[in-house]
Write a structure and sequence with these properties.
- The protein is an alpha+beta fold.
- The chain has two domains: about 80 residues, Multidrug-efflux Transporter 1 Regulator Bmrr, Chain A (Alpha-Beta Barrel); about 70 residues, Alpha-Beta Barrel (Multidrug-efflux Transporter 1 Regulator Bmrr, Chain A).
- About 20% of the residues lie in helices and about 30% in strands.
- The chain contains three helices and five strands; from the N terminus they run βαβαβαββ.
- A five-stranded antiparallel beta sheet has the order 2-1-4-5-3.
- The longest helix has 14 residues.
Length: about 150
């Protein structure tokens, strides 16, 4: 709501909130298992910000939120830039539990194109709202960082 105040951020433009994204990994114990134990998942949730958001705009917004709607997890929220590198991504349509099928297709693509996963950590971009979409119609972009071999 900063655009309705006297202190409008420089370069402000109206925008739609970007989709939720997640970086997914496994705890050390989970990496050694032959099956996916969801209790071993670790993740970071993110929402891309428009280009006019910088450290000053972020800090101002956080101060206001902490005053108006205090929450114990607000201190874990941070603003940072992430640079992506060469990657392979694919649109997965359906249940989250069926993502391994899509990951297999992505791995086959990598094998056929002289690419190797740099890490098993992957990004998911949630294009559908799971609260409003039938599970078999959920759309999620799956992305791995890769390197040429």
């Amino acid at each position: 709501m900063m655009h309705k105040s006297d202190n409008i951020p420089e370069g402000y433009f109206e925008y739609t909130v970007y989709p939720l994204e997640g970086l997914w990994d496994l705890k050390e114990n989970g990496r050694g298992l032959e099956y996916l134990d969801k209790n071993e998942l670790i993740y970071t949730l993110m929402i891309r910000q428009p280009s006019f958001v910088n450290d000053e705009v972020f800090n101002r917004a956080m101060e206001k939120v902490k005053r108006k709607k205090p929450h114990r997890l607000l201190d874990k929220v941070k603003f940072e830039s992430i640079k992506d590198s060469l990657s392979v991504q694919m649109l997965h349509i359906g249940f989250y539990d069926d993502e391994p099928i899509t990951f297999e297709i992505m791995q086959k693509f990598c094998d056929e194109n002289n690419l190797r996963l740099r890490t098993k950590v992957h990004r998911e971009i949630y294009l559908s709202d799971f609260r409003k979409t039938e599970p078999e119609k959920l759309k999620t972009v799956l992305r791995y960082k890769v390197e040429r071999i």
